[in-house]
Amino acid sequence: MKYKRILLKLSGEALMGNKNFGIDNDRLSIYAKEIKEAVDSGCQVAIVIGGGNIFRGIQAEKGGMDRVQGDYMGMLATVINSMALQSSLERIGVQTRLQSAIKMEQICEPFIRRRAVRHLEKGRVVIFGAGTGNPYFTTDTAATLRAIEVEANVILKGTRVDGIYTADPEKDKTATKYDTITFTEVYDKGLEVMDLTAFTLCKENNLPVIVFDMNKGGNLKKLLQGDKVGTLVEV
User: Fold this and answer.
1) CATH number of the domain to which 53 belongs
2) Could you tell me the residue range of the domain that residue 108 belongs to?
3) DSSP state at residue 16
């Protein structure tokens, strides 16, 4: 296995499946099975999920809502998604722990780095909810921060597209895909991989990122085996 410990970043929108809002249980089940395969192979898996399928703080701000209030609401949305994934994983026999950056004792543990690492070492999937616990930071930044804290080998960013392209492949049919690209090249070319705060954290801590299509069955397993899937971003 190429990676011993990974941080899997999933977007909230990905959980919608073919719906316009909320959570598609079929999509959730598919993700859970893919994650179970990774765990069964001996990989230690940590997960961060966005909340865009339920609420986005930035969009709320555009509608006149206070940005800080909106961001906290977005953090709560990520906890809802995290609980849904936790339930789906445990239904198929995967031990999980949900840790939140905002205290919610009745439903999840507080984030404690040493405890998170211990859970991973015991083969449990650790889901990190509520972002960083601070407004103005995205779930991409939360994923990067947690990956660095638990010493993950790589961030695997599951998206709807199979990597990073020269342009948006859904809009530009001439767009070509990068197999590998450096952090500096992503900066220089103005490509959108994750927000700049998260991206800078990855670069400064020499933490590689792989952008791949999570909706294609078997991709996660192939990545762990060392197959070339998606686009690798490294120093």
Assistant:
1) 3.40.1160.10
2) 5-234
3) G
